Amino acid sequence: MESLPNAEFAFPGPLRDALVAAILAGSKTSTTSLALQYDDDGGEPLPRPGDRSILVDSGERPLAVLEVTEIRLGRLGTVDLQHVRDEGEGHETLEEWRAAHEEFWHSSELRGVLGDPSFTVDDDTVVLMERFRVVELLPAAETARTATDGAGSAQAR
């Protein structure tokens, strides 16, 4: 297998592991990130349909190969309910989803990564709405899936 970049959801810890479990269970097929985390000037490039990456958990274990199927850039205020539901985090309303995501985007960890301790989002913040699919489960995925069986929901929030 060629060398692929890691697909890291959230920061290492319970949230990442819940998101990874949802991906492995097939309930998470989309994600939303801040467009400003990507740039074409030497930073992380915007993903494109067909791009592949290695899904890793908090322990950096490679669990699956993901493939981007669709990318949309848009305003945060235009994220639709189907995209929210496809994120697989259990949110049934846009308000629930938005509150949970704002909690993450306004966290000291993300603000530190962005280098802006007062960063906030609003309806006009540009976000990247990404759809993906699992194309291959790697050997460690079975261990990870077994570890989450019976442990309750894989809800991120």
Automatic annotation (TrEMBL):
SMART domains given for it? Answer: ASCH
The residues covered by the ASCH domain are 9-136
Q: Which InterPro entries match?
A: ASCH_domain (IPR007374), DUF984 (IPR009326), PUA-like_sf (IPR015947)
Q: Which Pfam families match?
A: ASCH
Q: Which PANTHER family does the record cross-reference, listed alphabetically?
A: CYTOPLASMIC PROTEIN (PTHR39203:SF1), CYTOPLASMIC PROTEIN-RELATED (PTHR39203)
Which named protein is this?
Answer: ASCH domain-containing protein
State the species of origin: Arthrobacter citreus
